[in-house]
Recover the amino acids of this structure.
């Protein structure tokens, strides 16, 4: 199963765009750390996700799924072993490009990047931003609209 980059549609302050990314690289990958938005690196296994039929976003190379352990505003997002019964893994992608979790009695929570400017990150000309859950209905669309791109 081949994955694809999950890239923010607005490039904001990064000419290469921001992708959902696992902190670290190679032998120093930090699968337990919160995910981040990082300069897109086509072909990098720590940025390749696929939407699978049971309603999860899977990080293909590491057999882990996009996971929110806390369904609350500003909660970080991680990758964790896939568990179809875990509500924090039931991310849906809609026609607006939102990657979101439905929340009973509340607006859905969207995967999004922090406002402001990116900060320098490993690699020449690489930037990073925090990644968290935001209220889909009131957050600036440029921070919560994603696209799936083949690497």
């Amino acid at each position: 199963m081949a994955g694809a980059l999950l890239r923010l549609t607005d490039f904001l302050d990064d000419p290469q765009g921001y992708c959902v990314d696992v902190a670290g690289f190679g032998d120093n990958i930090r699968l337990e750390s919160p995910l981040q938005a990082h300069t897109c690196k086509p072909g990098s296994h720590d940025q390749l996700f696929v939407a699978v039929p049971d309603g999860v976003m899977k990080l293909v190379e590491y057999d882990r799924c996009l996971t929110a352990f806390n369904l609350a505003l500003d909660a970080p997002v991680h990758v964790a072993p896939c568990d179809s019964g875990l509500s924090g893994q039931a991310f849906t992608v809609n026609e607006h490009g939102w990657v979101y979790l439905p929340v009973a009695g509340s607006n859905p929570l969207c995967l999004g990047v922090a406002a402001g400017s990116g900060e320098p990150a490993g690699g020449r000309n690489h930037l990073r931003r925090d990644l968290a859950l935001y209220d889909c209905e009131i957050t600036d669309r440029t921070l919560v609209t994603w696209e799936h791109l083949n690497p």
